[in-house]
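INFO  loader      accepted 1 record
INFO  loader      residues=117
INFO  predictor   begin
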Amino acid sequence: MRTGNLFVDALPPLEGERTETLLTQRNLVIERTVSSADITPHEYVQSQDEWVVLLRGNAILNVAGEIVELNAGDYLFLPAGLPHRIQHVSEGALWLAVNLYQIKEHLISVRESGHED
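INFO  predictor   done
INFO  writer      dumping tokens
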């Protein structure tokens, strides 16, 4: 059994984002991300499904051409292959992401990284 606290060591980096893997179990990966307000928008098109909740702060995303505003407590499901980008995020925004990989894809990723929790 492992315990932790999502709000411990949650200071934002000087720029960009800091992502930490909290749990890897079979084809499920849970990550915590802390954002700086100084980000460079980057388009993501992920191979896995992702459910994300904004625990603290606010953000504006462009999801396949649609503007989505998120505030603390708001969540969003991003199916695999859906293009999205963070347009704006508040300093210290705290995210929790639950990623669901295809089994085959996840096993390849684990082999490449050399570990599974």
